[in-house]
Fold these 4 entries.
Entry 1:
Amino acid sequence: MLEILEEFLADTYVKDQAVICEENIDQAKVNRVMDEFWDRAAENMNSVKKTSDLMGSLRMNLSKKVHKIVSILCDYVSLMQASFNSSDDAALVEYKKDQNTVIAPYG
């Protein structure tokens, strides 16, 4: 399962072709994710019209929290890489066999 988390962080939050660590968190990617989910939230609010973008102190507070969470996940990946062999993970082996079926409903 560590490999899945690494792939997610690399695709979504970490600079391209970079080691997964706090120093390589790409703020532009964080901003894209926040904008995407802000727009999704507005779409899901049928009775409310989207009136503004995510801006100002609200954006800054959310950005800091997202950065902190991603930083913790990066630290977790580093720690697990130092002490874990993915070939021993039975859940990961099963997931890889049926990856497309598992992910398809959510993608």
Entry 2:
Amino acid sequence: MNFLIQETDILLKSGEKEPFTFYKGEKAPMLFELAALICETFEFAFPYMKGFFRMNYDTTDIADKCFQSILMHDFGENIIQHNWGNPEKITSLDALRKKILTAIETGKECPQRL
């Protein structure tokens, strides 16, 4: 386990468990590591995505959460660079969101990796 990141669950009043992460000693939402999981670990591969998010996941919702995760993550720029090339060549946030959605919908590796 990385000493800077500790994952645990909290028990909600409803009795359900809610996972969350302590990042650098502060509470961080699960969303924080979602981009690294989807882009770097799963590499957008459909079998992994299906297994993690369940059979019928909403690609637009997952793309939006991944987009938010990239924007908040310290290594968001690195994730962009690794998957889509030079971040400076992405002309807008909407263009980035579309790239993420396309990668998730196609379940294929990004052009930068080919």
Entry 3:
Amino acid sequence: MINRVTIVLLVFLAGCSPLIIGDGMFRVSGDLSSFGNKECEISIKQLSEVEPAGHNARQVSGVFEVDFTVSPSSESYSIEVKCNDRVIETKIITYPKDTGTGGLVKLGVLE
């Protein structure tokens, strides 16, 4: 009896192993020092989305590093930085190809 239960459990677990479970994540860094203490907004969205979801936008200023939780599957994302309602940087990346899991996207000095 126990051998059958063990075999069924092992077959079940082996069948689930190819499933992608969990979330992906990458970080974005940059330098907004030229804007003083003024807060700017950084957001990400999948290229198929019209607007970023509310949880994918952050207020940033100065030298910053923020992280975003994303789908664990491969997707292309647009990273956008706005200051004073003006887009100052846009970058397209493919996660995880361009970043790796937990990787860092460096935007550098933004002006």
Entry 4:
Amino acid sequence: MKTSFVEKVLSLIQGGDESKIKRFHKKIVKAWKNQIRIRKDEIEKLKEQIEDKNEELSEAIFNVDVSQIQTTESTDAYVETYSQKINKINVDLDSFAKQIDVKNTEIKQFEDLVNLVS
């Protein structure tokens, strides 16, 4: 038979503080579930930012400024500018993906804590 969080804590302390421990248990589980919800909301916002950046990337790739490629010299300079713009968007996309990974790890940790005390 699995011992509850409250039972385990009560076995370690003296006196009849069961109601305090139950209240604490309820509050800590609520706080952890709130943290899970917050991170899930943050992930949704990051996913929206990824969608926006993917659109920006498509536009940047196919939006070549013909006026910047009239001569060999101007083309060479534009290649650098164009590449930097594309690379910046890709760096942003990588950053968003990494942030989502971190948030998912944090969610898993909070879920593990909730399961541990449930």
